[in-house]
Amino acid sequence: MSLANNFYNLIFKRNSVYVPVVFASAFAFGIGFDLGTTAFWDSWNKGKQWKDIRHNYVQQEE
Amino acid sequence: MASKATTARTLLRSSAWSTSSRTAAPSFKQSFGARFASTQSSTAPASSVFTSGATLAAATGLTVGSIAWYTHLYGELPLIGGVSASSLADNGLHPAEHPWSHKGVLDSFDHASIRRGYQVYREVCAACHSLDRIAWRNLVGVSHAVDEVKEMAAEVEYEDGPNDQGEMFQRPGKLSDYMPKPYPNEEAARAGNAGALPPDLSLIVKARHGAADYVYSLLTGYIDPPAGVTVREGLNYNPYFPGGAIAMARVLFDGLVEYPDGTPATTSQMAKDVTTFLHWAAEPEHDERKKIGLQALIIFGSLLTLSLYTKRFKWTPLKTRKIVYVPPKDAH
Q1: Which of A54, B35, B112, B152 is the most buried (most CB within 10 A)?
Q2: Helices (H), chain B
Q3: Domain limits of chain A?
Q4: Where primarily located (chain B) (predicted)?
Q5: What is the number of structural domains in chain B?
Q6: Does B150 touch chain A (CB under 8 A)?
């Protein structure tokens, strides 16, 4: 119960806290989800995408 | 619970509601508990408009009539298919399904194959086939680095203008230019190919039944015509091509091109690479589409689970309630 109480007091009590928390967590989730699915996609398609074979064709990189 | 319900039934007959309960009595005997007692309807009358023979005949007539009318109008019913006298010789041999490396729902194109396929297109196919909808810039970051593409584009002369003298002039190609055409117009293309027009290859994978499997089978499927089949002079026999006689001759032979990455340039390897390249040309959004599809499935799947849980949660009190009838104590 104290956890729920802490949660309430910390986040839900004031709208001025609640709304920024919603926005910030949506932003963080968006980035995290994209990073996670991209990591999975890249490992699933390892060696097939352009970024995996680019180093064969572009040598000098200053 | 059950005993309570039985008591309720027996008592109801002698209660003050006996007049109204008389009509409902037969269904009460069949009901399983008091839960439905209040909502149970009385038995339907023996004959209604839904059970009459005339209704059955009318519905049957309507069904048969609409099917007949539809068949007359459109030739065959949807989703059922019809019987026709078509043959493989007329419609082309059905191409076998091939294990493309980008076949699965999560599989991207093999970009090394796209690069080799571009080489095959440029050295072989581009002699006759245009690729109108692909610009040089489309290759950047897909099969070639930007400097490579700039060099390749600069090797081709494009007409531009007019300049300040009002004259058209030639200039080397830029990234924004589209792939050069082998023929200036359709008539020239026909004239150069004995009357047959080499189709533009930008969307060929989307534009043919069997898609990539068809293109691959066609490129590798050239054989001598079987006994009894004669092919007109200038045409070639290919069982995958509808009609069997195709103006394009077999072009891919082992060792026709030399791959810089050391891949052996067999006929099937070149056909696979150029088909992958053409598949990319037809669906450049392919990789991104599949990746976004994965993300969308995860998000929408989670939202669906969440909403189903919320529905169950909210409906729990209604779904688990019990209505109990407590009989009056002073029944006589």
Answers
A1: B112
A2: 2-14, 18-30, 53-74, 88-91, 111-123, 136-139, 146-154, 186-192, 204-207, 211-220, 267-282, 286-319
A3: 1-33
A4: mitochondrion
A5: 1
A6: no
Give the separation between CA B39 and CA B21, rounded to whole angstroms. 13
Q: Are B5 and B325 in contact (CB under 8 A)?
A: yes
Q: Which has the higher per-residue pLDDT, B234 or A61?
A: B234
Answer whether B109 sits within 8 Å of A54, measured CB to CB. Answer: no
Q: Is residue B262 less than 8 Å (CB to CB) from chain A?
A: no
pLDDT digits (tens, 9 = 90+) for B235-277: 999 999 998 999 999 999 999 999 999 999 999 999 999 999 9
Higher local confidence (pLDDT), B164 or B23:
B164
Residue of B280, B295, B297, B300 to mutate for A, most A C-beta atoms under 10 A: B295
CB atoms within 10 A of CB B242: 16
Instruction: State the complex-level ipTM.
Output: 0.88
| Closest Cβ–Cβ partner in A44, A56, A57 for B106 | A44
Indicate which CATH number applies to the domain containing B265.
1.10.760.10
Residue B110 falls inside a structural domain: yes
Burial of B305 (0-12, 13-18, 19+ CB in 10 A): exposed
Nearest CA in chain B to A49: B111
- The parent domain of residue B124 ranges over 93-134+178-284
Q: Is residue B327 part of a domain?
A: no
Q: CB–CB of A49 and B101 under 8 A?
A: no
**How distant is the alpha carbon of residue B327 from its chain centre?**
63
The Cα-based distances of B275 to A5, B104, B203, B220 in angstroms read 62, 17, 11, 11
pLDDT per residue as tens digits for the range B40-66: 555 555 678 888 899 999 999 999 999
- Closest among B189, B51, B220, B170 to B127, alpha carbons compared: B189
The continuous run of DSSP H or E covering B171 comes out as: strand B169-172
B133-179: per-residue pLDDT in tens? Answer: 999 999 999 999 999 999 999 999 999 989 999 999 999 999 999 99
Which band of pLDDT confidence, cut at 50, 70 and 90, is reported for residue B89? confident
Query: What is the identity of the amino acid at B36?
Result: F
